[in-house]
Amino acid sequence: MQIQFWRPFTVCLALALSGIACAQSPPSERSNVQVSVNTAQAVGELPAVWRFFGADEPNYATMKDGRKLLRALGELRPQQVYFRAHNLLNTGDGTPAFKWGSTNAYTETADGQPVYDWTIVDGIIDAYRANGVRPYLQIGFMPQALSSAPPGTPYQHAWRPGFKYDLITTGWAYPPKSYEKWGELVYQWTLHNVERYGRAEVEQWYFELWNEANFPTYWRGSPEDFYRLHDVSVAAIRRALPTARVGGPDVAGPGGAFMDGFLAHVARGRNYSTGEIGTPTDFLSFHAKGRPTVVDGHVRMGIAAHLKDVAGGFGKIAAVPELARKPIVIGESDPEGCAACPGPQNAYRNGTLYSSYTAASFARIWQLAKEHKVNLEGVLSWSFTFENQPWFAGYRQLATNGIDLPVLNVFRLFSKLGPMQLEAHSSAQVSLQEIMNQGVSGASDVGVLATRAERNVQVLLWNYHDDELAGTDATVSLNLSGLGRGDRAVTLWYVDPQRANAFSAWKAMGSPQSPNEVQYQQLEQASRLLPTQAKPLSVKSGRATLDVDVPRQAVVLVELTQS
């Protein structure tokens, strides 16, 4: 069965009917790829690790575009999507800025008595809960009244895109002057959350301290200072809610010697708060980032570096017997490091290079978890939105001015995957070892991930290359076995250079920076992930074959359901 719905003429006709101009491009070369899926052969569970997101700027969650995007995230899998944000305890009036946020949760009277005010932080968590999202609650950063920063150190930074990254390091990054007051702040906040949202609800949250304390930009104390702060925080959380899910440390990368010390401390060190051996640990977390470069005027992604970080973090945890089977959340997992840094080198984030990278990298992260025999529970994409910024400015985000980007539609495809992974092979899928050694630098990575949900089958296909250049589209011959009896209905979902892609539609409009109401509606329509129905698939002796076009840097989901 041949399925080739994508044609430049068809796409341009659709855009023209919406009032959008479109210039056709010449057809590219095409490769033939053989993909086999044994729908009767399960190879294990596929945990829905993609359900985690986060951002530096917590206050955006209560703004118009932030609320709209939270609603879209919550709809992916209501009550099972988690959001992590920095700056939830920072001192300030709640006005957002790049890589900044505040809630004024803690201040002190003139004589040093604590004053707690949960108004702003409640509004943020309320926005999560109203949209079916739960907190992955980061405890931090240091309130101004508790900061041990040297006299004269500014508290709120004045960083903006283009400035040196380390300029974000100001008074919020220091250890507390009083660990006792800090512990009481964490206890009171947790107790308040239990009273406001209910014990059963808060038991579903994740609690972790700080961010990337192995990185001097975020932590101006010693490793031992951090271990102490971690112990005090965990004890305070558990004092308010003994069943709270606690963990950490959300280090940058695999964490180096800092992570080694942390793992040893929580496994068998003397607890700074209780005096006992070890620290309660329900999950462990680290970060993994790619390292893209600009080569001959185009972006070349660094997926190899990203996957090496993942493997390094898994290896560290697996090497500690007391912790080897603990759940793991990769607390930030992204193509590169700075979500708030726009510019031409980051324009790839608007289009399908980012979305196809996401599909290709998640597939390998699932594979690495199996190879390392670790309990992977979450992979958190540090990407949300930036309110009232130029359209398609190149921030690492899921939506721009309330319009979804292609990458968000890949998470929608993930949400359609079943819980059981099936045996699947592609003749053009780059091996894990090769992609970790050199990325995707030769032929494209045309890969497959297949799952089953009851009697229905889902086949995820992607055509990814590290280089943001025109290249070869693929015709995938999808050979299915183990289907049993009866024809199957076929639904295809495309995220490609033309479909589920508002960026292409915006460029076809002439890249307006102030779209009018009609243009906005057209962009919303262009961003939507819409099904393409094909005629039923004829099954003979449990086997069937269909051809699917997978353009360069595209992701396609094929759904097979009982007719």
Q: Could you list some keywords that capture this structure?
A:
alpha/beta, 24 strands, eight-stranded parallel β-barrel, Immunoglobulin-like, ten-stranded mixed beta sheet, single chain, 13 helices, 2 domains, 563 residues, TIM Barrel
Structure notes:
- The chain is α/β, with parallel strands linked by helices and 563 residues long.
- It folds into two domains: 2-45 and 417-562, Immunoglobulin-like (Sandwich), CATH 2.60.40; 52-390, TIM Barrel (Alpha-Beta Barrel), CATH 3.20.20.
- The chain is built from 13 helices and 24 strands.
- The chain has helices at residues 8-17, 64-76, 119-130, 179-197, 199-202, 223-240, 256-268, 303-318, 352-372, 406-415, 432-438, 502-509, 517-527, and strands at residues 2-3, 30-45, 52-55, 81-85, 106-108, 114-116, 133-139, 206-209, 245-251, 283-289, 293-295, 298-300, 327-334, 375-381, 399-400, 403-404, 420-426, 445-453, 456-464, 473-481, 488-495, 531-537, 544-550, 554-562.
- A ten-stranded mixed beta sheet has the order 1-23-20-2-17-18-19-24-21-22. Strands 3-4-7-8-9-10-13-14 form an eight-stranded parallel barrel, surrounded by six helices. Strands 5-6 form a two-stranded antiparallel ribbon.
- A hairpin with a 2-residue loop joins strand 11 (293-295) and strand 12 (298-300).
- Helix 8 crosses helix 11 (432-438), helix 9 (352-372) runs parallel beside helix 10 (406-415) and helix 12 runs antiparallel to helix 13 (517-527).
- The radius of gyration is 24 Å and the shape is globular.
- It starts with a strand and ends with a strand.
- Mean pLDDT is 94; it is low at 1-27.
